[in-house]
Amino acid sequence: MEIWKSLFKNQWSPFIGALLIGFLNAMMFAFESPWSVFAGLRNWGLHLLECIPNFPDVAQISPLEHNSSVMDMAFLAGAFGSALLAKEFSIRIPPFKEAMKGIIGGILMGIGANFARGCTIGGFYSSISALSISGLYMMAGLFFGTIVGLKYLIWDMGRPEKKPSKSGKAFYPPPLLQICSGTFVIIAGLILIPYYYDYLDLNILGVIFCIAAILGIVNQRSRFCFVRAFREPFMTGDGEMTKAAVVAFLVCVSGFSLLKFSEIKDLTAHIAPSAGFPAIIGGFVFGIGMTLAGGCASGSLWRAGEGHVKLWLAVLAFCLSAAGTHVILQVVFEYSYFKRVFLPDFFNSWLLSLLVVFGIMYFWYWMASWNERTEKLVMLK
Fold this sequence. Notes:
The chain is mainly α. The protein contains 16 helices and two strands. The longest helix is centred in the middle third of the chain and has 26 residues, at about 135-160.
């Protein structure tokens, strides 16, 4: 009972979540590939688009065998099971206006992720951790996109409404049903499904599913979300999630660098080919989208697992937008990205590369702390 209370009754500190997320992402990278969300959602969208008559066969890999798709399914299952066990699951139906923000936000995230070659996880978090310069470019775009998105939300809140907006509705399953269902989902996610993959001789996918399911639990319990890390200092002045994000980076960058420097993983692994303009534009568009939707790529998934219909719509729109933009850019126009840039090659020094990344993270941490004291950057006053 005490263990259950510690895990599922009390909310976890975001710093505990950040430490675990950094460690689990490094572990996933050691086994196969780092944590990503965008490629999996795009794979889902491509399969949905193939339901359209005469649509070209572009999905190629089954969602059950696509690495990132398996990560997304496991992550969603972990968050869903965690929410059930914590008795925090409810089907929350938003007002029409909020639902539209979710859809538009999802569409923008799908477009932005295509240009940046990743979302806030694969294109930003795992990318910087792999010492890919494109992740730093995307970070700049995310900052400006978040500010633009937040300015719109503040403007929208101040507008007089012609008609009083209807409040959302929520439906709560019985607590006992939630606990029983959550127990089944967690057992399936951590034991049964990984065993099934092992039975099919797809051992790596079984390991990926298990780690990603744990990531879903950790994110849901700690409320870890990159949209909060970027948005809250400008919206409320709260810098806790920003500081937690920096901790997640420090752990993950250290783990990835150790794996690469020791040649356990290839030096060019997870170096996105979007350095420069594509990553900045992609981050900017994605930043607006995640601010409107109220969740980044991973945040949208774990909130969807809690029953937020707005995020169900955002995830669906993300899938279809990511797939449609992919087809338009790469199949129709054969759009090519810029070269891949590995920071130690760019600076010709591992030490300087790590100092640059850690320096940027230290500045982000310092800025959040300074803003908590002064509220100089707070836009909502």
